[in-house]
Amino acid sequence: FKTENRRMKIRDKIVTQKYYLNVFNGIFLALGLMLLTFGLWLLFDRNNLFSVLFSSGKNQIVAYFSYMLLGIGSVITFTSAVGFLGSGMEIKCLPVTYMSFQILVFVTQMAILVLIFMKKEEVYNQWNNRIDEVISEYGNESLAEQEPVWNILNAVQHNMECCGRYNVTQWERNENKENSTQIPCSCTKSSLKKWFCDIPRDSIYSMGCEEYLNTWFENNVLILTAITISLLITQIFLITLTRQLFRNIRKNSIWPNE
């Protein structure tokens, strides 16, 4: 009777642990899919200023970072599938495999978090330098392949009612204008479909776009950091629950050597 009672208690623990494991595993999967989506967005969205700025030329930061996010997201999705399978079938090797993958992903996530904080300032500086470079190249007929970047910059200036990165005087460095007084049509309320316009200075947006661009950059870094930290916290619960579940499965009376 005592043995049967002990088995029932172990069985109750297994059911409870499986429930919480599935809940946290579902959260883990959702966060992993968010990383996948983030990676796909950076890689394929041609309306994303950050992606377009860094998708051409020598600097391939976005491409490398996107592939890293896609890789981690794919591993998380696979790991979650192993977790659901192991929880449902109660096969001893599956929790062990699941826990091994969790530890691997945990270490990788820690590395990504460290990388974000270490490289944030470098990427930020490259981001500003690349915007300045785009402003100096804007309207150059020999660089027609850069038109998608110019169109996005136009959209930013027009929609946010700003001009240049820090202010309108930055456009004085652009040498692709017909005369020195011209500025991009997007720096005003003009609806003309051309790169530069002759417009009175009092009709030009005086504020630079730097504040908006920096806010956009910081928000995306914050979102990615929040997802990474959430994954790490979730994994701590998952590794602990998986370890306890594995120990109770071994104790369960279904194993003939127990």
UniProtKB/TrEMBL annotation:
The superkingdom listed in its UniProt entry is: Eukaryota
- Keyword annotations from UniProtKB, A to Z: Disulfide bond, Membrane, Transmembrane, Transmembrane helix
Q: Which residues form a coiled coil?
A: none
Q: Which GO terms describe its cellular component?
A: plasma membrane
- SUPFAM superfamilies this protein is in? Tetraspanin
Please give the Pfam families that the UniProt record associates with this protein.
Answer: Tetraspanin
Family matches, as Gene3D superfamilies:
Tetraspanin
> Any transmembrane segments, and where?
20-44, 64-86, 98-118, 221-241
Which residues pair up as cystines?
Answer: C163-C185
Write down the membrane topology: Multi-pass membrane protein
Q: Where in the cell is it found?
A: Membrane
Family, according to the entry, reads as follows:
Belongs to the tetraspanin (TM4SF) family.
Protein name (Swiss-Prot/TrEMBL) = Tetraspanin
Annotated source species:
Hemiprocne comata
The gene name reads Cd82_0
